[in-house]
Design brief:
This protein is an alpha/beta fold. The chain has helices at about 5-10, 15, 20-35, 40-50, 55-65, 100-110, 130-135, 145-150, 160-165, 165-170, 175, 180-185, 210-220, 280-290, 300-315; strands at about 85-90, 115-120, 155-160, 200-205, 225-230, 245-250, 255. Strand 1, helix 6 (about 100-110) and strand 2 form a beta-alpha-beta unit. The longest helix has 18 residues, at about 300-315.
Protein backbone atom coordinates (compact mmCIF):
# COMPACT_ATOMS: atom_id res chain seq x y z
CA UNK A 1 0.00 0.00 0.00
CA UNK A 2 1.38 3.40 -1.00
CA UNK A 3 1.78 6.16 1.59
CA UNK A 4 1.09 8.81 -1.08
CA UNK A 5 -2.26 9.67 0.51
CA UNK A 6 -0.55 10.46 3.80
CA UNK A 7 2.18 12.49 2.10
CA UNK A 8 -0.52 14.52 0.38
CA UNK A 9 -1.93 15.47 3.81
CA UNK A 10 1.33 16.26 5.59
CA UNK A 11 3.18 17.72 2.60
CA UNK A 12 1.17 20.89 1.98
CA UNK A 13 3.70 23.16 3.65
CA UNK A 14 3.92 24.59 7.15
CA UNK A 15 0.54 26.36 7.03
CA UNK A 16 -1.41 24.04 4.73
CA UNK A 17 -0.35 20.62 6.09
CA UNK A 18 -2.92 18.57 7.95
CA UNK A 19 -2.21 16.45 11.00
CA UNK A 20 -2.73 12.70 10.90
CA UNK A 21 -4.79 10.79 13.42
CA UNK A 22 -3.04 8.32 15.71
CA UNK A 23 -4.18 5.28 13.63
CA UNK A 24 -3.05 6.99 10.41
CA UNK A 25 0.37 7.83 11.90
CA UNK A 26 0.66 4.25 13.13
CA UNK A 27 -0.12 2.86 9.69
CA UNK A 28 2.23 5.29 7.97
CA UNK A 29 5.26 4.55 10.11
CA UNK A 30 4.50 0.83 10.20
CA UNK A 31 4.85 0.79 6.41
CA UNK A 32 8.06 2.83 6.59
CA UNK A 33 9.62 0.57 9.22
CA UNK A 34 8.56 -2.57 7.36
CA UNK A 35 10.37 -1.34 4.25
CA UNK A 36 7.18 -1.20 2.21
CA UNK A 37 7.81 2.27 0.75
CA UNK A 38 10.03 3.47 -2.06
CA UNK A 39 13.09 5.62 -1.42
CA UNK A 40 11.26 8.55 -3.01
CA UNK A 41 8.28 8.11 -0.66
CA UNK A 42 10.61 7.78 2.32
CA UNK A 43 12.41 11.00 1.48
CA UNK A 44 9.11 12.83 0.92
CA UNK A 45 7.80 11.62 4.29
CA UNK A 46 10.93 12.73 6.12
CA UNK A 47 11.01 16.18 4.53
CA UNK A 48 7.27 16.79 4.89
CA UNK A 49 7.30 15.92 8.59
CA UNK A 50 10.44 17.97 9.13
CA UNK A 51 8.61 21.04 7.81
CA UNK A 52 5.26 20.33 9.48
CA UNK A 53 6.39 19.01 12.86
CA UNK A 54 4.72 16.21 14.83
CA UNK A 55 1.54 16.50 16.87
CA UNK A 56 1.12 14.52 20.10
CA UNK A 57 -1.36 12.22 18.35
CA UNK A 58 1.09 11.56 15.52
CA UNK A 59 3.88 10.87 17.99
CA UNK A 60 1.61 8.39 19.76
CA UNK A 61 1.02 6.50 16.52
CA UNK A 62 4.70 6.65 15.55
CA UNK A 63 5.88 5.35 18.93
CA UNK A 64 3.33 2.52 18.96
CA UNK A 65 4.45 1.46 15.48
CA UNK A 66 8.10 1.56 16.52
CA UNK A 67 7.56 -0.49 19.68
CA UNK A 68 6.08 -3.22 17.48
CA UNK A 69 9.44 -3.28 15.67
CA UNK A 70 11.55 -3.49 18.85
CA UNK A 71 13.30 -6.39 20.51
CA UNK A 72 11.27 -7.78 23.42
CA UNK A 73 13.02 -7.15 26.74
CA UNK A 74 10.17 -7.95 29.12
CA UNK A 75 11.90 -10.99 30.63
CA UNK A 76 14.59 -8.73 32.09
CA UNK A 77 12.12 -6.79 34.24
CA UNK A 78 12.31 -9.37 37.04
CA UNK A 79 15.86 -8.16 37.72
CA UNK A 80 14.60 -4.61 38.34
CA UNK A 81 12.78 -4.63 41.71
CA UNK A 82 13.79 -1.03 42.34
CA UNK A 83 12.34 0.18 39.05
CA UNK A 84 13.79 1.11 35.67
CA UNK A 85 15.08 4.36 34.24
CA UNK A 86 15.37 4.52 30.45
CA UNK A 87 17.92 6.95 28.99
CA UNK A 88 17.55 7.47 25.22
CA UNK A 89 20.96 8.74 24.10
CA UNK A 90 21.10 9.94 20.49
CA UNK A 91 23.02 13.21 20.19
CA UNK A 92 26.43 12.63 21.74
CA UNK A 93 29.09 15.20 22.61
CA UNK A 94 30.05 18.01 20.28
CA UNK A 95 31.68 20.54 22.65
CA UNK A 96 31.00 19.30 26.19
CA UNK A 97 31.79 15.91 27.75
CA UNK A 98 28.97 13.40 27.34
CA UNK A 99 28.05 12.49 30.93
CA UNK A 100 25.08 10.20 30.27
CA UNK A 101 27.16 7.23 31.45
CA UNK A 102 27.87 9.04 34.74
CA UNK A 103 24.14 9.55 35.31
CA UNK A 104 23.55 5.86 34.58
CA UNK A 105 26.29 4.75 37.00
CA UNK A 106 25.00 6.98 39.81
CA UNK A 107 21.45 5.70 39.34
CA UNK A 108 22.69 2.09 39.43
CA UNK A 109 24.39 2.84 42.74
CA UNK A 110 20.96 3.85 44.07
CA UNK A 111 19.51 0.45 43.17
CA UNK A 112 17.90 1.55 39.91
CA UNK A 113 18.00 -0.62 36.79
CA UNK A 114 19.19 1.61 33.95
CA UNK A 115 18.87 0.99 30.23
CA UNK A 116 20.62 3.37 27.85
CA UNK A 117 19.78 2.98 24.16
CA UNK A 118 21.27 4.81 21.22
CA UNK A 119 23.66 4.52 18.26
CA UNK A 120 27.05 2.86 18.58
CA UNK A 121 28.77 5.62 16.61
CA UNK A 122 28.10 9.03 15.10
CA UNK A 123 30.56 10.52 12.60
CA UNK A 124 30.11 13.98 14.11
CA UNK A 125 29.76 13.29 17.85
CA UNK A 126 31.15 11.24 20.76
CA UNK A 127 28.40 8.78 21.63
CA UNK A 128 27.45 7.31 24.99
CA UNK A 129 28.25 3.91 23.48
CA UNK A 130 31.85 5.00 22.97
CA UNK A 131 32.13 6.45 26.48
CA UNK A 132 30.58 3.36 28.08
CA UNK A 133 32.87 1.10 26.04
CA UNK A 134 35.86 3.08 27.32
CA UNK A 135 34.52 2.46 30.84
CA UNK A 136 34.38 -1.28 30.26
CA UNK A 137 30.65 -1.75 29.71
CA UNK A 138 29.64 -4.70 27.52
CA UNK A 139 26.59 -3.86 25.38
CA UNK A 140 23.57 -6.09 25.94
CA UNK A 141 22.02 -7.88 22.99
CA UNK A 142 18.85 -9.49 24.37
CA UNK A 143 16.69 -9.92 27.48
CA UNK A 144 18.96 -12.54 29.15
CA UNK A 145 22.09 -10.37 28.85
CA UNK A 146 20.14 -7.34 30.07
CA UNK A 147 18.81 -9.29 33.03
CA UNK A 148 22.32 -10.50 33.93
CA UNK A 149 23.70 -6.95 33.74
CA UNK A 150 20.98 -5.60 36.01
CA UNK A 151 21.32 -8.53 38.42
CA UNK A 152 25.00 -7.55 38.78
CA UNK A 153 23.97 -4.00 39.69
CA UNK A 154 25.35 -2.43 36.52
CA UNK A 155 23.75 -0.04 34.02
CA UNK A 156 23.18 -1.43 30.52
CA UNK A 157 23.62 -0.09 27.01
CA UNK A 158 21.89 -1.48 23.92
CA UNK A 159 22.63 -0.35 20.38
CA UNK A 160 19.52 0.93 18.59
CA UNK A 161 20.53 -1.33 15.69
CA UNK A 162 19.95 -4.24 18.10
CA UNK A 163 16.89 -2.85 19.86
CA UNK A 164 15.16 -1.86 16.62
CA UNK A 165 16.97 -2.44 13.31
CA UNK A 166 14.04 -0.86 11.48
CA UNK A 167 14.29 2.38 13.45
CA UNK A 168 18.07 2.39 13.04
CA UNK A 169 17.57 2.33 9.25
CA UNK A 170 15.17 5.28 9.48
CA UNK A 171 17.62 7.25 11.61
CA UNK A 172 20.35 6.58 9.04
CA UNK A 173 18.32 8.44 6.39
CA UNK A 174 19.71 11.57 8.01
CA UNK A 175 23.09 10.91 6.42
CA UNK A 176 21.45 10.81 2.97
CA UNK A 177 19.15 13.85 3.11
CA UNK A 178 21.12 15.88 5.65
CA UNK A 179 18.20 16.41 8.05
CA UNK A 180 16.76 14.69 11.08
CA UNK A 181 13.35 13.04 10.70
CA UNK A 182 10.51 11.86 12.98
CA UNK A 183 12.55 8.77 13.84
CA UNK A 184 14.87 10.95 15.93
CA UNK A 185 11.97 12.27 18.01
CA UNK A 186 10.50 8.78 18.37
CA UNK A 187 13.85 7.36 19.50
CA UNK A 188 13.97 9.84 22.37
CA UNK A 189 10.52 8.68 23.50
CA UNK A 190 11.13 4.93 23.44
CA UNK A 191 10.56 3.09 26.71
CA UNK A 192 10.41 -0.67 26.01
CA UNK A 193 8.94 -1.23 29.51
CA UNK A 194 6.20 1.42 29.53
CA UNK A 195 3.39 -1.11 29.02
CA UNK A 196 4.68 -3.59 31.60
CA UNK A 197 3.57 -3.84 35.27
CA UNK A 198 6.99 -2.64 36.44
CA UNK A 199 7.80 0.94 37.45
CA UNK A 200 9.76 2.73 34.74
CA UNK A 201 10.57 6.37 34.09
CA UNK A 202 12.01 7.62 30.84
CA UNK A 203 14.12 10.75 30.49
CA UNK A 204 12.83 12.73 27.52
CA UNK A 205 15.11 15.54 26.44
CA UNK A 206 14.86 18.21 23.81
CA UNK A 207 17.26 20.71 22.29
CA UNK A 208 14.85 23.41 21.11
CA UNK A 209 12.19 25.06 23.33
CA UNK A 210 9.38 24.54 20.80
CA UNK A 211 9.75 20.78 21.16
CA UNK A 212 8.90 21.07 24.86
CA UNK A 213 5.29 21.87 23.93
CA UNK A 214 4.71 18.91 21.61
CA UNK A 215 6.55 16.54 23.96
CA UNK A 216 4.51 17.77 26.94
CA UNK A 217 1.36 17.12 24.92
CA UNK A 218 2.54 13.63 24.05
CA UNK A 219 3.48 12.69 27.62
CA UNK A 220 0.07 13.90 28.83
CA UNK A 221 -1.77 12.11 26.03
CA UNK A 222 -0.23 8.69 26.71
CA UNK A 223 -0.18 9.16 30.50
CA UNK A 224 3.58 8.65 30.64
CA UNK A 225 5.92 8.49 33.60
CA UNK A 226 8.81 10.69 32.53
CA UNK A 227 11.30 13.43 33.26
CA UNK A 228 11.21 16.11 30.55
CA UNK A 229 14.18 18.44 30.31
CA UNK A 230 16.41 20.36 27.95
CA UNK A 231 19.33 18.01 27.48
CA UNK A 232 23.03 18.76 27.38
CA UNK A 233 23.74 18.98 23.64
CA UNK A 234 20.69 16.74 23.24
CA UNK A 235 21.80 14.11 25.77
CA UNK A 236 19.44 12.99 28.60
CA UNK A 237 21.71 14.31 31.34
CA UNK A 238 21.71 17.62 33.16
CA UNK A 239 24.30 20.22 32.22
CA UNK A 240 27.15 19.91 34.72
CA UNK A 241 27.48 23.69 34.74
CA UNK A 242 23.87 24.69 35.50
CA UNK A 243 20.76 22.76 36.48
CA UNK A 244 18.06 22.87 33.79
CA UNK A 245 14.33 22.78 34.42
CA UNK A 246 13.05 19.33 35.38
CA UNK A 247 9.41 18.58 34.56
CA UNK A 248 8.27 15.31 36.13
CA UNK A 249 5.18 13.59 34.76
CA UNK A 250 3.44 10.75 36.59
CA UNK A 251 0.69 9.10 34.55
CA UNK A 252 0.80 12.10 32.27
CA UNK A 253 0.26 14.68 34.98
CA UNK A 254 2.93 17.19 35.93
CA UNK A 255 4.04 16.70 39.52
CA UNK A 256 4.93 20.16 40.83
CA UNK A 257 6.58 18.89 44.03
CA UNK A 258 8.93 16.60 42.07
CA UNK A 259 9.70 19.08 39.29
CA UNK A 260 12.51 21.59 39.74
CA UNK A 261 13.06 25.13 38.54
CA UNK A 262 16.14 25.94 36.48
CA UNK A 263 19.12 27.71 37.93
CA UNK A 264 18.83 31.36 36.94
CA UNK A 265 21.20 34.30 36.86
CA UNK A 266 24.88 34.64 36.05
CA UNK A 267 27.12 31.76 37.04
CA UNK A 268 29.70 32.87 39.56
CA UNK A 269 31.64 29.60 39.49
CA UNK A 270 31.95 26.68 37.10
CA UNK A 271 32.58 23.07 38.09
CA UNK A 272 35.84 21.53 37.04
CA UNK A 273 35.35 19.65 33.78
CA UNK A 274 37.75 17.35 31.92
CA UNK A 275 40.17 18.95 29.50
CA UNK A 276 38.61 17.22 26.48
CA UNK A 277 35.41 15.49 25.48
CA UNK A 278 36.75 12.41 23.70
CA UNK A 279 35.55 9.05 24.99
CA UNK A 280 38.69 8.09 26.90
CA UNK A 281 39.06 11.47 28.63
CA UNK A 282 35.39 11.49 29.57
CA UNK A 283 35.54 7.90 30.87
CA UNK A 284 38.60 8.69 33.00
CA UNK A 285 36.84 11.70 34.53
CA UNK A 286 33.71 9.66 35.29
CA UNK A 287 35.83 6.98 36.94
CA UNK A 288 37.49 9.65 39.10
CA UNK A 289 34.06 10.86 40.23
CA UNK A 290 32.88 7.34 41.01
CA UNK A 291 36.07 6.77 43.02
CA UNK A 292 35.43 9.92 45.06
CA UNK A 293 38.40 11.77 43.62
CA UNK A 294 36.19 14.43 42.00
CA UNK A 295 32.86 15.84 43.23
CA UNK A 296 29.67 14.92 41.42
CA UNK A 297 28.30 17.97 39.57
CA UNK A 298 25.35 19.22 41.70
CA UNK A 299 22.99 19.33 38.71
CA UNK A 300 23.55 15.64 38.02
CA UNK A 301 23.08 14.78 41.70
CA UNK A 302 19.79 16.68 41.55
CA UNK A 303 18.75 14.70 38.48
CA UNK A 304 19.52 11.39 40.21
CA UNK A 305 17.48 12.45 43.26
CA UNK A 306 14.64 13.58 41.00
CA UNK A 307 14.51 10.29 39.10
CA UNK A 308 14.67 8.17 42.25
CA UNK A 309 11.82 10.19 43.75
CA UNK A 310 9.80 9.84 40.53
CA UNK A 311 10.26 6.06 40.57
CA UNK A 312 9.10 5.96 44.17
CA UNK A 313 6.00 7.95 43.23
CA UNK A 314 5.26 5.54 40.37
CA UNK A 315 5.66 2.57 42.71
CA UNK A 316 3.42 4.23 45.27
Amino acid sequence: MSIAAYIKEIGRGKDGARALSTPQAHDLLSQVLAGQVTDLELGAFCLAMRIKGETPEELDGFVQATLAHCLTLADAAAAAPGGIVVLPSYNGARKLPNLTALLAELLARRGVAVLVHGPATDPTRVTTAQVSQAMGWTPVSDAPSLRATWAAGRPAFIDIATLSPALARLLAVRWTIGLRNPGHTVAKLLDPFAALPVPSVRVVNHTHPEYAHSLTGYLSLVEADALLMRGTEGEPVADARRQPRFEVFIRGQREADLSRAPEEGVLTALPELPGGFDAETTADWIRAILAGQQPVPPAITAQVDCLVAALARVQG
